[in-house]
Amino acid sequence: MPDVPIAIGDASGTSDSSGEFSLEVPGHRSLSITSGLAAISFPPITGSGLELSQTYHRIEVSPLIEPLEVCKVSIDGAPFLFFSYFNQADFPLTVPSGSRLNQFEPKRGYEPESIFLAAESGFVRPYELFASGDRWNLLGDTISVQEPIPVCTDRGDTGGCSPIPSAIKAKPFAFAKSAITTLSRRAEKLLRGLPRQPSRRTSPPFFASGSAALAGIRRIMNTVPSAALICDPAPSMCQVRKYPRAALQREFARLCKVKLPPELQGLMTDCRRERRRFRKYLARELPGSFTDCSG
User: Fold this and answer.
1) Rg of the chain in Å (alpha carbons)
2) Which residues does residue 53 pair with via DSSP β-bridges, in sequence order?
3) Which helix (H) or strand (E) holds 177?
4) Cα–Cα distance, 253 to 61 (Å, whole number)
């Protein structure tokens, strides 16, 4: 099996694309060949370095996680694919995603889960990401996405989790951009009505503070993992984290710290109104917390 971590004494390495592994070891030491990944099991092979190097060892590995099936589910009216598996251990196991041990083929910029809960469970990915014939390779086993995809009759024990739609994640930036555009247009309209406009060398009101606020909001949203989930209840091996509403509000408040000429001071009232609208919008549209199972 390719990409399997293997330990020989204090040394370690990974099997190649052919599933082979070689390593120079001291001949006089007593050594043991063991699996370097808890999700793959095989009996240890022991002996001195000299004894182990004198023969080719064929290791029969036993994966502890098996992919079961892929079926279609609907979450909040949107179609998703549910990839189920069975973990025969009584504790969560990790298999790095993106390697040949755990990957989607062909690669399209997204990966499977890397943490596998005990017993039968699964994870979801948006339906539109896949095409018929795509495969999930897990520990040497494969299941395929084949149309027509059956509708799930049992989603398994997912801990009541569903992914946060990307549209929700984009809402704070979109709202802030709209508010900044509105304030900027009001400022430009007022400036045009003045008998004498400020110097052209001065940036328009809300331009600098608005750009900084948008950059900060984007930075904060990037701290929310792409695989963030809404779970009820959350799996015990995952972390529940607060959604960064407060940080987003502080970043948006920077917009109202702009210095305005006396003729435009009335816009400060508008800015504070937009700040209150932003706070209420976040409370209405964003979850208070999310579940992070990325480890």
Assistant:
1) 27
2) none
3) helix 166-192
4) 57
The residues near 94 (Cβ < 8 Å, ≥ 6 apart) are 38, 39, 114, 115, 116, 295
Q: Hey, where are the domains in the chain? A: 5-62, 65-157, 166-292
Question: In angstroms, rounded to a whole number, what is the distance separating the alpha carbons of residues 99 and 199?
Answer: 58
Length of the chain in terms of residues written = 295
Residues 85-127 pLDDT 10s: 999 988 888 898 888 899 999 988 788 998 898 888 888 888 8
Which of 282, 78, 72 lies closest to 165, judged by CA?
78
Q: What is the spatial distance between Cα 221 and Cα 247, in angstroms, rounded to a whole number?
A: 10
Beta strands in 218-288 (DSSP E): 229-230, 239-242
- Please write the tens of the pLDDT for every residue from 2-30: 777 777 766 666 766 666 666 666 556 67
What are the CA-CA distances from residue 83 to residues 116, 152, 163, 247, 273 (Å)? Answer: 11, 10, 14, 35, 46
Quote the pTM value.
Answer: 0.49
